[in-house]
Amino acid sequence: MPRADQERVTFQPMGRRADPQPGQSLLHLAQSAGVGIEAPCGGKGLCGKCRVRPEGAATPLTPAEKALLGSDAQEGLRLACQAALPQGGTVWVPPESRAQRQVILTSGPSGELELDPAVRAFELSVPPAQPPEPEAARERLQAALSQAAGNHLQAPPELPLGLLRALPGLLKQGGELQATLRHDREIVDLTPVGEGSPLGLAVDLGTTTVVAYLCDLNSGQLLAVSSEMNPQVPYGDDVISRMSLCAGDPQGLGRLSAAAVECVNALAMDACAQAGRDPGRILECVMVGNSAMHHIFLALEPASLAMAPYAPVVRGPVEVKARQAGLALSREAWLHWLPLKAGFVGADIVAVALAVGADQIEEPTLILDLGTNGEMVLAAGGRMLACSTAAGPALEGGHIGQGMRGAPGAVERASLELGAAKANLSVIGGEPAVGFCGSGLVSLISCLLNAGILLPGGGFDRERGKGLVRSGEHGLEFVAAPSGATGHGRDLVLTSKDVSEVQLAKAAIRAGAEVLMAEMGVERLERVLLAGAFGNYLDPGEAARIGLFPPVALERIQGVGNAAGVGAVMALLSDRQRRRAEKLARDMGYVELSGHNLFQELFVDSMPFPSDG
Amino acid sequence: MPRADQERVTFQPMGRRADPQPGQSLLHLAQSAGVGIEAPCGGKGLCGKCRVRPEGAATPLTPAEKALLGSDAQEGLRLACQAALPQGGTVWVPPESRAQRQVILTSGPSGELELDPAVRAFELSVPPAQPPEPEAARERLQAALSQAAGNHLQAPPELPLGLLRALPGLLKQGGELQATLRHDREIVDLTPVGEGSPLGLAVDLGTTTVVAYLCDLNSGQLLAVSSEMNPQVPYGDDVISRMSLCAGDPQGLGRLSAAAVECVNALAMDACAQAGRDPGRILECVMVGNSAMHHIFLALEPASLAMAPYAPVVRGPVEVKARQAGLALSREAWLHWLPLKAGFVGADIVAVALAVGADQIEEPTLILDLGTNGEMVLAAGGRMLACSTAAGPALEGGHIGQGMRGAPGAVERASLELGAAKANLSVIGGEPAVGFCGSGLVSLISCLLNAGILLPGGGFDRERGKGLVRSGEHGLEFVAAPSGATGHGRDLVLTSKDVSEVQLAKAAIRAGAEVLMAEMGVERLERVLLAGAFGNYLDPGEAARIGLFPPVALERIQGVGNAAGVGAVMALLSDRQRRRAEKLARDMGYVELSGHNLFQELFVDSMPFPSDG
């Protein structure tokens, strides 16, 4: 029943309205109204990121808010996941709390890729039925197609019922038609001639970002790229909080799955709109993503991924009709998910390994995928060993007091002139800064180490940082920008706790890399490849400065862009690459770091920053 | 908008009500209200069978009614397909116009059938995931199943998405489960152990009657048989009128298809209810039927079947997921349609040939399937030749003045005592007679020939038939029962025109058989097998007396029951029999009789009845 206007809640500046339900938090109400509010902890009252300013008769402050809001509570700020406005009112959502479109790296694959796709289109001339023993339409089509395909088909290709039903109508317009054959086994499309090439969609379903690549499967050409924030983000920033939503709410898995599926459908529409093509011509789809994204997308219960011994529901490639997974592509299109390696080494890492050719790398090379989890592969002499570190989201700005994702207002680079009274900040979008994203954090810490303001142990040198380092609520903190120069009117600070978070993350990654080296008997790295959007934004020198990975020559650290997306496109364009990915996933070794003794030891040893500049 | 009660039409004695739409005939209105009225011509005003008695302001008599109703018009009878009651009223539907449940032959297959079904169930113990490299659930299931199946699987069996989603839940209750494997390629069912055998459904979709056989696929046992009149009958009695409905009405095919699909679903439910089983355990379905029933069931445009050169849309076996065809069986069950031979030699004939082992018959044998069409196969020395005659529906009581199907009130057998003043009639259900069904017609004509009342040329001998033969509206007619002894209060008569219809039908069948003999070089038949329900009701001596087929020793004429159903069950229970059916359909020859010179000649020669008794 619609409420009287004064009983509704209006979210500003969006102007969206919604009817509050009994017991419903402002966060859930905002989600129901399509208003994106940052909630990295999944609305559990743990992260303090969903700050809003309600006007009206709000419910009383909760203990979580008292702990997390500090003095901001006096200014009328509340946590959207804790507060409610049962009688209606207005909620102001400040910029830093808004789930925004991010700056996403979506450069497509470059260079020549192998073209040998799962589907092939043939133009056929199907002869009419001839007395005295007139052959049936399907059988005439099958014969014409076998001939066109070179008569090497083992059996007549299958024709799905939907296409069989369309066949008489198609043949009425003369016998000329285009048939698309998949794996020499099944006809997946029938159209009049001249309907254009079959299209393919490769999708990298990241925890944070979803990127779709639209390709012409006749020419192998990349036609368009479309990307969007993963719509699951409002339900929780990391895979753990999303998996716990699935465990705790019977509708959780269905809701998260539907959100991802709809996102891929929207990206397919958008990419086709960019390229002036019809999404109904997409005849093949390849997807990659980490194991949690894979399970949730396919609506597979992810509980086993989160519990020892961390076994997935399925590890090898999954092939299903795309429509069964909810995708609105061509009716008979197939969806191929690249294989996983293990519970925490997903299809995205397999795709990265495929893209960089890890199975053929000779010199010891560390391939680091710095997404929301820190997964890596050590490749040497054709062998591969993978692990996943619970690095946490610090390098993406998570668990950092004023951390944020790579959105407008985020500090992405910092420099510090000797003796200067303030840091020079480079901010995404050129706006006043409102927080740090991962590359900005690494950059700032790297500068502070070089300036001696930050000590290898992680403490601030108050003397060296005079005028910039001060005592804060939780110990010493570095003021990167005063309130007058920020977008939210508060000082932008890097706290000791923030530094500790970065130390924990980089120590986990470095220790993981050293475990892989020890297991494979590699003494020294010859090369580091940084994959993922973050890998590309990161300055190699700064990453080395904070000790993110074992020592390597600076010029041998290389960003490889969205390698997972490139791997997905390779598998879309070539069946041979798809089989190679499967073999690569099987051949790759895997080290489980939880409970690994050497890892624990190396982790502690890796906590300090390197002392040499 | 619901109408006032006085504006509605009430069908009696059913008591069903409906709102008449502008221009809607009483026949269509009755169909919309679920009232079955006989309309063998499909409501075209040609057959005069849909007589009803409307009370209210009916539309004026049409020319078709004036021609077909004769004096009945004065008694207030109308044709439901011509008349309407736009202002509402009551419609009385007399018994002979009601589409009734028929007496259907549904004896199941007897004897030992080969058991080697497409699906096999295995009880498995799936081991839990073990560190340090825990295997995924699907892969553990696949390994356990491969081992149980004897390790001869070429590739790990596929697991459909629906079952993959159910797998974690099933494994939570310990690793014991039952997996059903199809063709060693796909897992089609997963349940806890103890859920019972997989079930199979074989369906014979006849033009008039649909029969479903429920089998246990572990034991091969026939659990239940269920049958029903084909719900397409109210749309037209024969395949031609149903195909023309598909051609003339854009919704026609969808409506006819849905009616057949719903009928099979209802039969599956009923058979399972009889056997105390769950329709969700039906994991495999085999269907047979003539080419028109096959196309319409699968919603394939049947137009090409009705036009030279009579090519089907598909000839070989069709395998689709049962749910795609609309069947509500187990979610992953497959439907297998046996192959057709040609446009007018359908999967039912292939099934009959399989059931009687036509591919191994040595002595010249004519296999006659006397359904709504007259299809036949001549088998000799392992060779087979088939044809279809446009025999028309006379032998099923169609196109006969007082003809009807084998329903209560139908004369099924007649005898004539020498010099008696009336015929002795045996009536289905023991009720007063209201019409003739096929076997009754053959029986009466045979008696009349023996008594010399009917002459070989088809004319009545008025002298010999004194007191029983009289002049009627359309020439001479034989009074089989006077009005006082019938169920509808009118004389039951066999007219000269009725005799001509039977002559046309039997001449077509006999000429077809002689063409096959000539083509195969067979001089004399050694055996005749009569398949189909009609074949079983028919008296072999009477059939021979009217010259339905070339001469053969009386004791070598044999009814083989519902052989099409038996063939369907054989293909359900055995994959080898399914492949045999495919080979048989390929190897069988086919003669197209339309435009065949010898056929025309033989047809004319076969019109007279044999003169010898």
UniProtKB/TrEMBL annotation, chains A, B:
Molecular function per GO: iron-sulfur cluster binding
Region entry Disordered, spans: 1-23
Residue stretches making up the RACo linker region domain: 113-192
Top-rank taxon, per record: Bacteria
InterPro entries: 2Fe-2S_ferredoxin-like_sf, 2Fe-2S_ferredoxin-type, ATPase_NBD, Beta-grasp_dom_sf, Corrinoid_activation_enz, Raco-like_middle, Raco-like_middle_sf, RACo_C
All residue ranges annotated as the RACo C-terminal domain in the record: 363-611
Domain RACo-like middle region: 199-359
Residue ranges of domain 2Fe-2S ferredoxin-type in the record: 11-84
Name of the protein described by the UniProt record: Ferredoxin
Species name: Desulfoferula mesophila
Classification lineage: Bacteria, Pseudomonadati, Thermodesulfobacteriota, Desulfarculia, Desulfarculales
